[in-house]
Specification:
The chain has one domain. By secondary structure, the protein is an all-alpha fold. The longest helix is centred in the N-terminal third of the chain and has 16 residues. Helices cover 61% and strands 0% of the residues. Bound molecules: iron/sulfur cluster. The site of iron/sulfur cluster (SF4) has 9 residues, from helix 2 and helix 3. Iron/sulfur cluster binds next to helix 2 and helix 3.
């Protein structure tokens, strides 16, 4: 397994094990194209910065920065 795939698998596995799979869009553009917006409601990307522990999102952000 390549490094990127292994990191993805490890990150997803850890998130499932912890039961922490948050909605964490980077900005409102992602939500504007998403079919689940009626479920999440407006402004989820703003709530991410205020109500979700930043340290818990580090693995997700690390994945997003990978090539
Ligand atoms: S609407 Fe919800 S599921 Fe869709 S991108 Fe935004 S936060 Fe994620």
């Amino acid at each position: 397994m390549s490094g990127s795939v292994a990191e993805l698998a490890r990150t997803v596995s850890d998130a499932v094990a912890k039961g922490f799979l948050p909605a964490a869009p980077r900005d409102d553009r992602e939500c504007s194209r998403c079919d689940y917006q009626p479920v999440c409601g407006p402004g989820e990307w703003q709530r991410v910065t205020k109500k979700k522990p930043a340290d818990a999102l580090v693995p997700l952000n690390k994945l997003r920065e990978m090539p």
